[in-house]
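Hi R.,

Here's the chain you asked about this morning:
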Amino acid sequence: MALDLKEIQELIKFVAKSGASEVDLEIGEMKISIKTPPKKGRGDAYLETIVQQVPVTGMPQMAMPTAPMAQAAPIEASPVVDEESNYITIKSPMIGTFYRKPTPDKDAFASVGDDVSVGSVVCIVEAMKLFNEIESEVSGKIVKVLVDDMSPIEYDQPLFLVDPS
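And here is the predicted structure, written out as tokens:
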């Protein structure tokens, strides 16, 4: 049994939230090692993940007990925007670093109260030294910015809440 990319990303999120410093996992021929340093302060933390295909002889073993994995289901089951279900969420199309401004000395692309239309740039995501403009897929008014500027973000992570009315 091999994990797909989404399952690996969910595992990385779970490990990052759990506070574990290191997790090694072998499933079939796939070996996953996730290491996180202790958090010193905001912006000092990073997440290192190594995924390898290795021939495994014998029974696959898990270094992490299976009990904490069962706790992942309730975390994933709770939607981020329960109380704001009438809003539309703009999500990240990639993993990278979130920037609200084109340069540090310029104004943010989109702030709370700003009107956005389909195709208007709302932020930049830096991935592998490439700066990707993220465009809104909806029209409306920004009601909440869900991510701090210059923060690492994950694929499909909610970035903005938009009121379409």
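One quick note: Residues 88-163 form a domain with the OB fold (Dihydrolipoamide Acetyltransferase, E2P) fold (CATH 2.40.50.100).

Cheers,
M.
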